[in-house]
Specification:
heterotrimer; A alpha/beta (256); B mainly alpha (289); C mainly alpha (231); A: 256 residues; alpha/beta; Rossmann fold; 6-stranded mixed sheet; 4-stranded antiparallel sheet; 10 helices; 26% strand; C: 231 residues; mainly alpha; Methane Monooxygenase Hydroxylase, Chain G, domain 1; 81% helix
């Protein structure tokens, strides 16, 4: 067992996932510790993003997909029929590969989710906006232009806005799907720095193609290949002495 | 390659380009010709009285104000009927329906609807709205008929607009724990709306000029008074032209009136199109995703 | 161990070049030890001077290899076995360079000894030198073949060399006690013995790094059991 049992916030148990006939995940069991960064790595199509999207039921949106096994969030299977996926997604936020702010003002981008979740009152919303933007280390850059369109921010700023937007829902877990793949190195460094800060408050699970990034930001790393979780361990171990040959081949660039 | 071969190829190319230019030129000439012809013949009839007065002396004198007003009401009615119905259908087709045989049949149905001749819509309107639902020949019946006529256009335009809303917007909203319905209402529709409007208005411009669907359902041969309720008959520009040109008391003498009315109708349709173009231009400038 | 090729053949070649560089450096040090000992046994001071001069090549190669490794670290961001190989290479490189320096020390002592009559026939020293040279060779073979068993053998042999060193020390002590005029020569011989013992330490260091490279576990400060170590 890699993780400490009492620190686990979400775990998958023997999860299989199918897109129609195609089996995208095979028997994945892994656990994620609270206030830690866990990175999922592996070649394209290995199932790492699929797993990430299973954790907040984003795959529900795809026609003809099927989940087997259990995903326990705080001890409860989120795929039970009486669980509302909307509620799951409020607790487990997500940041995507490409920055995707809404074509609204910066302020409204952040208040959009909380408002629909029932937060009202100008003062409350303003406090929430400031808190979220500060957490995403964007406040100083945008505090004077909150009314302007989010579309005019730079790519890196947009991605931090998307993180702030997710944080405004006060989630427990933040899922990040290759959050820096569309950004330049400086913006990437800022996001990585931010991840380091955020893990004090949130649990972060990040999918990345950049192995150095996984090595830099994560505490635990899971290596996926062909829909299977090949190896899951402390990041340092994975990058110095992985147990599995496939992992070693992948991270040293001897793959395929 | 020999010089002759090169020259031969060059000649071929010149001839081909010449033909392409010619056909484009013919098209522009035809459009310009029609416009010029109508303007030349109709401009003399155009006056302040012409657009603000009802017809007089068995429609051989006076203006066409009731017809302008009637067309305006019918157009607004058509959009009031077609737009909500069309948008809702498009939302269902693109956002909710699982793609399968049923949806394919519905789509084919919509496409067929677009190909149905407008006179068939007119007869359907007569049989269903006027007679069966006892609306009589009225703005209501005519608006409903025109609304159904432009429905395929609106659905098509709306579907395109909805599909062009980036999937990432939907994902971002859903990932924030917002329900699908709220996502469509607050993110997808507002983003798609300018596109929906552009497409719909272009379709509407076409509907405003249709004669067949309204001649059985809404249009009056002559009425000097303006409508007071949706159950009143109205005059309409296309039908007025038709009447003047085929069944007027003095067809030859009223030629200028006919051309004047045509000119007004064309200006109206072009005006509607212009609105659509302006909306599209505004979105293009704003759109950055 | 079946080895997949790198996606980047250039990278593969650069790693290979580091490995070959280490083997070449190892060969140079072995030769230096052999010649330094030869100069002592054959009382050939010219040979000893050649050893001292040749050390420059070892130093140059050492710096060149280190530079290559740093370049690989900076440009390729190696991970897992490549990372372990390069860090291992840097350390092995250091060990080998020190071995070269010790061969020079031996050669210097040999020159000094050659100016005086031979104190005693050398029996244990050549044995010690032979074992030490063998240790270097084996540890580098272990590096080439990822062979932990061979590396462990080297670690065991270090005990033998230690014991020989102790034995020589006791023997020389008797010489010095019997006749103070032998002290100068005895101390020189003592230092040669000490240098050989240090060389064996470095060879063991190489073997330790090979074990780390293969297994990922560091065995550097764990000593194999040696019953007569402090005897």
């Amino acid at each position: 067992m890699v993780n400490q049992e009492d620190r686990i916030i979400i775990r998958t148990e023997n999860v299989n996932f199918y897109y129609g006939e195609f089996q995208a995940l095979t028997d994945v069991s892994m656990a994620f510790e609270t206030n830690r960064v866990t990175a999922l790595i592996g070649p394209s199509g290995c199932g790492k993003s699929t797993l990430l999207r299973l954790l907040n039921r984003m795959n529900d949106l795809i026609d003809g997909c099927r989940v087997e096994g259990r995903i326990l969030f705080e001890g409860r299977n989120i795929y039970e029929p009486d669980v509302d996926p909307v509620e799951v997604r409020r607790r487990i936020g997500m940041v995507f590969q490409k920055p995707n702010p809404f074509p609204k003002s910066i302020f409204n981008n952040i208040t959009y989710g909380p408002r629909l979740a029932g937060v009202s009152g100008k003062a409350d919303l303003e406090a929430l906006v400031e808190r979220s933007l500060r957490q995403a280390v964007l406040w100083d850059e945008v505090k004077d232009i909150l009314g302007q369109s989010a579309m005019m921010l730079s790519g890196g700023q947009q991605q931090r806005l998307c993180i702030a937007r997710a944080l405004a829902m006060k989630p427990d877990i933040l899922l990040m799907d290759e959050p820096t793949s569309a950004l330049d190195p400086i913006s990437t460094a800022k996001i990585e720095e931010l991840i380091e800060e955020l893990k004090k408050t949130y649990t972060i699970i990040i999918v990345t193609h950049n192995m150095q990034q996984a090595a830099r930001v994560s505490d635990f790393t899971g290596f996926f290949y062909l829909g299977k979780m090949i190896e899951f361990n402390v990041t340092e171990k994975i990058f110095t002495k992985p147990d599995m040959k496939q992992t070693e081949d992948y991270i040293t660039g001897r793959f395929g | 390659m020999t010089t002759t071969a090169i020259r031969y190829r060059y000649i071929k190319q010149t001839v081909f380009f010449g033909l392409v230019r010619l056909s484009a030129f013919i098209l522009a000439l035809a459009l310009g010709g029609i416009l010029a012809y109508i303007i030349v013949h109709g401009i003399s009839a155009l006056s302040w009285e012409f657009v603000t007065q009802p017809p007089r002396e068995a429609m051989t004198k006076g203006g066409i104000m009731p017809a302008i007003v009637g067309t305006f009401y019918l157009t607004v009615g058509a959009i009031a009927v077609g737009l909500p119905l069309g948008i809702v259908s498009a939302v269902y087709l693109t956002e909710y329906a699982r793609q399968g045989p049923v949806i394919r049949v519905i789509r084919i149905g919509i496409n067929c609807l677009a190909g149905v001749p407008s006179v068939v819509f007119g007869l359907f309107g007569l049989g269903f709205f006027v007679v069966m639902l006892k609306f009589g020949s009225s703005i209501l019946a005519g608006s409903l008929t025109l609304g159904f006529l432009i429905l395929p256009t609106i659905i098509g335009a709306s579907e395109e607009a909805l599909k062009s809303v980036p999937q990432t917007f939907r994902e971002a909203s859903l990932a924030l724990g917002v329900s699908k319905w709220q996502t469509i209402l607050r993110i997808v529709l507002p983003t798609a709306l300018p596109g929906i409007l552009t497409g719909s208005i272009l379709g509407l411009g076409r509907a405003a000029g249709e004669t067949a669907p309204i001649m059985f359902t809404a249009a009056a041969f002559f009425t000097a008074k303006l409508p007071t309720s949706v159950f009143d008959e109205v005059m309409a520009l296309p039908y007025h032209i038709y009447v003047l040109a085929t069944a007027g008391t003095n067809i030859e003498e009223t030629r200028p009136l006919q051309y004047g009315t045509v000119l007004v109708l064309i200006l109206l349709v072009l005006g509607i199109d212009l609105v659509a173009i302006l909306i599209r231009a505004t979105i293009r400038r704003r759109k950055k995703w | 161990m079946e080895e997949k090729r790198h996606t980047s053949s250039h990278y593969e070649r650069e790693l290979q070049e580091v490995k070959e560089g280490l083997l070449y450096l190892g060969a140079l040090t072995e030769k230096a030890i052999e010649q330094a000992m030869g100069s002592l046994l054959e009382r050939d001071s010219a040979l000893a001077r050649r050893v001292i001069a040749e050390d420059e090549r070892i130093d140059t190669l050492d710096m060149e290899l280190e530079e290559r490794c740093i370049k690989l670290l900076a440009l390729r961001q190696p991970a897992a076995r490549d990372l372990r190989f390069i860090t291992t290479a840097i350390k092995i490189n250091g060990h080998l360079e020190r071995i070269g320096d010790m061969a020079v020390n031996i050669a210097q002592k040999a020159i000094a000894l050659n100016d005086e009559p031979q104190l005693k026939p050398y029996i244990d020293l050549p044995r010690m030198a032979e074992i030490t040279r063998g240790m270097i060779q084996k540890s580098l073979d272990a590096l080439v073949r990822d062979d932990c068993a061979l590396a462990n053998e080297v670690r065991q042999e270090e005990n033998t060399v230690d014991c020989l060193n102790d034995q020589i020390f006791r023997e020389l002590l008797t010489f010095m006690m019997e006749d103070p005029r032998t002290i100068h020569r005895a101390l020189l011989i003592m230092q040669i013995s000490k240098n050989l013992e240090r060389i064996a330490d470095h060879a063991k260091g190489v073997a330790d790094m090979v074990i780390y490279m293969v297994t990922g576990h560091s065995v550097r400060h764990q000593y194999p059991e040696c019953p007569d170590r402090n005897a």
